[in-house]
Specification:
The structure holds 2 protein chains of 2 kinds.
Chain A: E1 5-8, E2 12-17, E3 20-25, E4 31-34, H1 36-44, E5 46-50, H2 51-62, H3 67-83, E6 87-90
Chain B: H1 3-14, E1 19-23, H2 47-60, E2 64-68, H3 78-87, E3 91-96, H4 103-112, E4 116-120, H5 126-133, H6 138-151, E5 155-161, H7 170-179, E6 184-187, H8 207-214, H9 217-220, H10 224-228, H11 236-239, E7 250-253, E8 258-260, E9 270-271, H12 277-283, H13 285-292, H14 314-320, H15 328-338, H16 343-357
The chains are: A alpha+beta, B alpha/beta.
Chain lengths: ~100, ~350
């Protein structure tokens, strides 16, 4: 998973609420709230950056966490959101994803 | 507490308008007998005005955006508005009669990522539905729209407003919704006309019919006994709570850019052609007055046994003359549900008894 590309699905809604990100999938109306780490991964999921790179350059630089722990949590997070169609995962860069992240 | 309830609670704590209902037009291609709107265009917002307001709403933290009307698809720029709203990552819900939704429109709504479409169906019988909408063939067109939307995998809710002309057809509409693979909601609320005319209220179904609906397991969709049990006596926490989300986490924007606490609460709080959204939301004296009201402040209702479990609508109360007063339609619902009179009903009864006593023999 770590060398895979992740992108926000075009069929999601998202908004910052306080220090959390509220995300809902239009596919199954599943609702999630993302904490600061989840939000950092979410905002970096542009389809052109690998999960490994996001963890190394966003998560580990912003939060005090080892790369191994961060990668384990990030993979679980991505698996969960991709199951609901909220994040797209591919071994190649992903062309289109949702525009804004506010 | 569900995650949705937690999100709403967090929005309340932060003072964020998490839900906005925007009517993009009051024009309509139906003429429903119970409709509270005036269908003329008296200066609707332009495309660029709506886009500018959507930018402001996103900045303010709005997440749930309901687009409605009138019939929203009457606007030629409707899909442009939806596309723009989706580019700002709103969760978009659409309320429509479906008459202008064919296969192509359904596909576009799906592609744009609209989350839910709510469509009004008044009866499973064309003569009743079309009689209410005043458009021949409207039931068939609405059903086709639902089929197109469902075939795209979109979620469609069938909304059944109950009134005297379609009384008794709720089971038929529920069965139709099931056939179309849609959730069904029933609403017996008929509101006064936007111009203050109360004559539409004669279409409200009588209390004993509301009682039948509220005691029907199929329509309640759960445990009737539990649903109809009177609320426990309100404690201090309940009395300190807010009446509903209007003005707290939700508001309404009209096609003319007027902002109100709710679509059913016609208290003007400001106009987006003159002020920024957050200036109205944060600083409007009217919005802040609505926001200041707690259940303990309600003139009759705070002492009513139903106060902890009533669906009292402050907007309907406002239209009755006092935003801190009772909403008689909700008093009737509480009575129909539990069999117990509300404080407002007792007060009215006592006033009537007094009048009888002073009538000369």
């Amino acid at each position: 998973m770590s060398d895979r590309y992740i992108a926000r699905s075009p069929r999601i809604a998202a908004r910052k609420l306080g220090d959390e990100m509220v995300v809902m999938s239009a596919a199954d109306s599943s609702l999630f709230t993302l904490n600061e780490v989840g939000t950092a991964i979410w905002q970096s999921a542009d389809g052109r950056t690998t999960l490994q790179s996001i963890v190394a350059h966003q998560v580990c630089q912003q939060f005090e966490v080892s790369e191994a722990d961060a990668m384990r949590d990030a993979e679980e997070f991505v698996t969960q959101l991709s199951r609901h169609g909220i994040l797209l995962v591919s071994d190649k860069p992903i062309e289109s994803s949702s525009g804004g992240t506010r | 507490m569900s995650l949705m309830a937690q999100v709403n609670q967090r929005a309340l704590e932060l003072g964020v308008p998490i839900s906005v209902h925007m009517d993009v037009t009051y024009r309509c291609n139906e003429r429903c007998v119970h409709c509270y709107l005036d269908h003329d265009d008296r200066g609707e917002m332009s495309t660029s005005e709506i886009k500018g307001i959507l930018d402001q709403l996103a900045e303010a933290g709005v997440f749930f955006l309901t687009l409605s009307g009138g019939e929203p698809l009457m606007r030629k720029d409707f899909f442009e508005i939806v596309a723009y709203a989706r580019s700002l990552l709103f969760n978009v819900k659409l309320k429509t009669n479906g008459l202008l939704i064919g296969e192509k429109e359904a596909h576009t709504l799906r592609t744009l990522g609209v989350e839910t479409v709510q469509i009004s169906v008044y009866s499973h019988r064309p003569e009743i539905h079309d009689g209410i909408t005043k458009v021949k063939g409207s039931l068939e067109r609405t059903k086709n729209a639902i089929r197109f939307l469902r075939s795209q995998g979109l979620k469609v809710t069938v909304a059944n407003v109950m009134m005297t002309p379609n009384l008794g057809d709720q089971e038929g509409v529920r069965a139709l919704a099931k056939d179309l693979d849609c959730p069904y909601t029933l609403d017996p609320t008929i509101t006064p006309h936007i111009d203050g005319d109360m004559s539409l209220l004669k279409l409200r179904i009588p209390t004993h019919e509301i009682e039948k609906i509220m005691h029907s397991p199929e329509l309640v969709g759960g445990n009737v006994e539990e649903y109809c049990t009177p609320a426990p006596q309100a404690d201090a926490d309940t009395l300190e709570s807010t009446p509903c989300s209007a003005g707290h986490t939700a508001c309404y924007i009209s096609p003319y850019a007027d902002v109100f606490p709710c679509v059913q609460f016609p208290l003007p709080t400001g106009n987006l052609r003159q002020q920024r959204f957050l200036a109205i939301w944060n600083d409007s004296p009217e919005m802040n007055e609505v926001r200041s009201i707690r259940l303990k402040d309600l003139s009759t209702c705070s002492g009513c046994g139903h106060v902890g479990g009533c669906t009292r609508c402050p907007g309907l109360a406002y239209m009755e003359g006092n935003m801190r007063g009772p909403s008689s339609a909700d008093c009737e619902k509480s009575f129909a549900r539990t069999g117990i009179w509300s404080a407002n009903m007792i007060r009215k009864f006592e006033q009537n008894v007094a009048l009888v006593q002073i009538t000369p023999a």
